[in-house]
Amino acid sequence: MKFLSYWHDAAPSFAGAAEGLVDGHHDIAVVGGGFTGLAAARQLAKAGAKVVVLEAETVGSGASGRNGGHLNNGLAHSYLAAKAELGKERAISLYQALDDSIDTIERLIGEEGIECSFRRSGKLKLASKPQHFQAIARNFEAVHAEVDPDTALLSADELKQEIGSPFFGAMLSKKSAMMDMGRYVVGLAEAARRHGATIFENAAVTEHRLVGSRHHLKTGRGSVTADAVLVATGAYTPATFGYFRRRIIAVGSFIIATRPLTEAEIAATMPGNRTCVTSKNIGNYFRLSPDNRLIFGGRARFSATSDHRSDAKVGAILKASLAEIFPQLANVEIDYCWGGLVDITKDRFPRAGCHDGVWYAMGYSGHGAQLSTHLGMVIADTILGRPDRNPMKGLEWPAVPGHFGTPWFLPLVGMYYKMLDSVG
What we know:
Layout: H1 6-10, E1 25-31, H2 35-46, E2 51-54, E3 70-71, H3 79-86, H4 88-112, E4 123-126, H5 130-146, E5 151-154, H6 156-159, E6 170-173, E7 177-178, H7 181-194, E8 198-200, E9 205-211, E10 214-219, E11 222-231, H8 242-245, E12 249-258, H9 263-269, E13 275-278, E14 284-288, E15 294-298, H10 308-325, E16 334-344, E17 351-355, E18 358-362, H11 368-383, H12 410-423
Parallel strand pairs: 1-2, 1-11, 2-8, 4-13, 11-18
Antiparallel strand pairs: 3-7, 4-6, 5-6, 9-10, 10-11, 12-15, 12-16, 13-14, 14-15, 17-18
């Protein structure tokens, strides 16, 4: 078993990173070389701006290359919960932003010729308990009537054609998609570079100062100045940007990938070949890879630290969860096991905008794979002075009480959610 991301291992490396010193003056400096930062850099460079991307490690090394490979529309909340908290207009706007995000990715892939196995698969929100299906059904009625008619409610019997595991029903979101995340992020980086962006890898920003109207950013490879800065670092935001660190909770999410499954195994487990998410608070998410591996994830622990010994324990926990859902795969070989960080806000709504002269887009709360490309481009357009399409505009973002960068409270959160799942 390899303790690294399947997406990283299966995709070619990005070969277009700039060499030499980090220096010079730029119109915009983008901090972070994941989906958000690269999509913004491409958009800015296409408009003729001089753009530099400063990536702490390598392109896609963070959440963009460590996720489950889902492009699911819909919110981290139920639509009903979002409407109750934010009002109908804002809830619809956010829901539609997720729809727009998948359209944006599909369009960008076509424009740039990125080969990444993009496919509109549809998503199943699977009811793990009878009462969960009742809640899913209520949410479906509102979603279908008010915001997304491309949805369906499936009974337990109808689900048998979709998945080889007993659930109590599901909501099908037909617009949802999947793709090869590793190939996409490399293709996105190549597109940004092709349009004129300069991308530095291994260039972590260690200092940021705003002097007058000019930003000064220091890295281990040199320093740059810029007229504008976009922070696109999500759960990997460094202490340099403390305002955002105090508002982002970095939660661990872990994934295993099996060996390629046979046609018979696929027919017995995932005949519908969709993205799937279970309804528990500490649930699981899974899909088939382009080469027919089952990619199976969950919060096997909330801790953000990781090493091979703890990864092996996580792998065992996830394999046990896989066997519980799919007993027919209990003895299947696991080829990959990896972890990553999810950038969660206190209310689980994403944020984007500008604070003290620094632009940002983050806090995707488990929906970053789909939203990040779109929101990066939206914020880029705002920086360029184009019409403001930011769906998060005006949404307050208070700091998490008692949180200064290290989420000490995560074990307590994990215990609370496990308790909720145990009682239904």
